[in-house]
Structure formats: structure tokens, C-alpha cells
Amino acid sequence: MLTGTNLPTPLYRGYQLTFGVSPLAVTLIFAVYVASLIPSLLIAGPLSDSIGRRRVLLPAVLLAAAGSLVFALADDVGWLFAARLLQGLAVGAASGALTAALSELEPSGDRRRAALVSTVASVGGLGAGPLIAGLLAQYAPWPYILPFLVEIVLLVPAAIAMAALPTSRPATKWRPRRPSIPTTMRGVFVSSGTAGFLAFSVIGLFLSLVPTYVTKLSGSANLALAGGSVALMLACSVIAQIAASGRRPLAIQITGLILLAAGLVALAVAGGVGSLALLLTATVIGGVGQGLAFLGGITEINRVAPKERHADVLSSFYVVLYLGVGVPVIGVGFLATVTGLLTAVQLFAAVVAALCLLDTLALARKRRRLT
After folding, report:
1. 276, containing H or E segment
2. pLDDT of 83 above 80
3. What is the phi/psi pair of residue 62, to 5°?
4. How many percent of the chain have pLDDT more than 70?
């Protein structure tokens, strides 16, 4: 599902040329995804605690297939907005329920291991989408159709897997409610949520605007290169998560935020000096930092979430993450219409790097209190 939602990433440049889409419109298309995802998260997470994971997840897979089909049929910008809306509903419905299901199905009840599988699958899917779409669009026929047809085919075994999930007994009665966090874990939620927000704001930048940034610095219109830059960042994130598995979540978050800040500074400098090599270095460092910050945060949330509200709490955490994906990048899109893309990305990188360092100080103080 996450592979499918990021297939459009290397294609946005072509949509801009074909449909006359501005950088601001690209960020708004990206934001529509987040705008539909968040209500879906808030409804479907608690709902899956009540009616069971399978009854929520199977419709989510079908919505994801519908989103890919709309992308394949798109002939103007309105179709792109509609497709992203469907994809947002699908991922929103699935995110909390899938993470909770992984914890419940882990044979020994090891929530730390379940969190690792969840983050690796999530970030791996995010990275696979741009790479697959870039390769198919560059070297195969029907560049704006074939990637989405492949995704629909891949969703068939996913649907079968969801249909085969065991029937779970309701843990709680569902009722509409505003987002809330159990009092006992609010401090953990705030600290981990802040780190996650910053980490995912960088993913939002890479998924929406960095492919165009890469083409400007490299002077190449190769779609595989544009998608590959995003895939590289997220591959480094996955590798870092696997390598850091089992370490203390707070220490992981602190290390991740420091590396994320360093990667963002290098990203800004790369645009200033026009260095593609430095950009790729920044991508690697930022990817490692993003992976560590994300893993540390979700491991801690997954550990302390009460059983009767497990998917509910995880869904609220994902709301914070996806706000990080969607909200800052809209500001970058607006700024790009005034200052140009390179300057907008540089300013974004500087601001988020500073916020990463501030959050690092807060987490370091918390770590000293605990020791």
C-alpha cells in the first residue's frame, strides 16, 4: 500500500509539464493525501479495536487499488487530486490497524520486534514506490499507466493476506471521539511525536519536491535518477533501523535527530554549490537520521500503549507523523512560488535542522532525568 502511494513521486515533474501543474499544486496534491488520511486514521484505528483488524484492513486494500486505478486513468489535474484522496483514505484506515495486528500476531508478544517490522515495512514501501515508478517510467512503455497497473496486481496477494487474518475479539466498544492519549503516556507521546513529526517532514520534502531538486542539480531528466534519490534516502532509513534494533529508544531518537540535522544542512549547502555528490551524501545521512528517529519513537509508543486502546494510540501517533509529511511541505510549495525551488528547499532545511537540535536538547534532558 505504501509503495503505491509513492509511485507518483518521480512522475510529478511530468505531470507538471503535461497538465501545467505548478510546484505549489504538487504540494497541494500531496496535502490532499494527508487531509483524507488523518480523519481516516482517527476513525479506523478505534474502529479496528472494536470490530477487528480484518474488517478494516480488507476495505483499505480495495481503496488503495481504486486510487491506483484513478492515477492510471488520469487525464487532468483533477484526477490526481481524486487519486490521492483515495490513497489517503486507504493508508489512514490501515496504518494503526496493521501496526497493532503485527504486535498481536508476533509469536512471543515482543512489541519491540513488531515495531521494527512495522517501521521497516513502512519505510521500505515508501522507498520502493519512487524507485519502481522511476524505472518503469524511464525504461518501459506507458510511463503514467504501467506503474499503477503493477501496483494493482501487487495488491491482490495483499488482499488475500488481509482476508486470511484471524478473527479478533473486540477489545473495546467503538464510539466517535476526538483524538486523546492516555494520561499515563502523554509525556512519551509528546517527545516521540515531536521527533517523528520532524523526521517525516523530511520524508514529505523528499517525496514531493526533491526529485525536481535533483533534476535541477544534475541537469538530467532521467526519471530513474529522480526516483532513485528518494529510494536511497529511505533505503538508508531501513538499514539504520535494522542496525539499531534492540537499542534504547531514547538514545536512538537523539542520535537520529542529530544526524537528521546534519543531513539537512548538507542538503542546503548542496543546492548552494550545485553539487550532486554532496546532495547524495546529504540523502544518506538524512536517511539514517530519519530511520533512527522514527524507530525510536514508534518503539516507545508501541511499548507503553495500553492493550485496549493499542490501535487508537498508534493511529494518533500516525496523525502526528502524517501532519509532518503534509503541513511543512505546503509551506515549501508556497515559498517556492516566490523564491524559487532551490531557495525554498534550503530555507526549509535550515529551519527543520534547528528544530531537530532543539528537540535533541529536550530529549537529552529527559534521558539525564531517567538515569
Report:
1. helix 276-304
2. yes
3. -65, -40
4. 96
- DSSP secondary structure string, 192-253? HHHHHHHHHHHHHHHHHTHHHHHHHHH----HHHHHHHHHHHHHHHHHHHHHHTTS-HHHHH
Residue 308: count of CB within 10 angstroms of its CB: 11
Cβ(125)–Cβ(232) under 8 Å? no
User: What is the predicted pLDDT for the residue at 255?
Assistant: 95
pTM, rounded to two decimals: 0.76
For the four alpha carbons of 200, 202, 205 and 210, in that order, the dihedral sign comes to: negative
Q: What is the pLDDT of residues 156-198, one digit of tens each?
A: 999 999 998 887 665 566 665 566 688 778 888 888 899 999 9
Question: What are residue 331's phi and psi, to 5 degrees?
Answer: -60, -40
Instruction: Write phi, then psi, for 85 (nearest 5 degrees).
Output: -60, -45
Cβ partners under 8 Å of residue 160, min gap 6: none
Whether the CB-CB separation of 315 and 45 falls below 8 Å is answered with: yes
Contact 241, 117 (CB under 8 A): no
Q: Over 70: is that where the pLDDT of 28 sits? A: yes
DSSP state string for 84-141: HHHHHHHHHHHHHHHHHHHHHHSTT--HHHHHHHHHHHHHHHHHHHHHHHHHHHHHSS
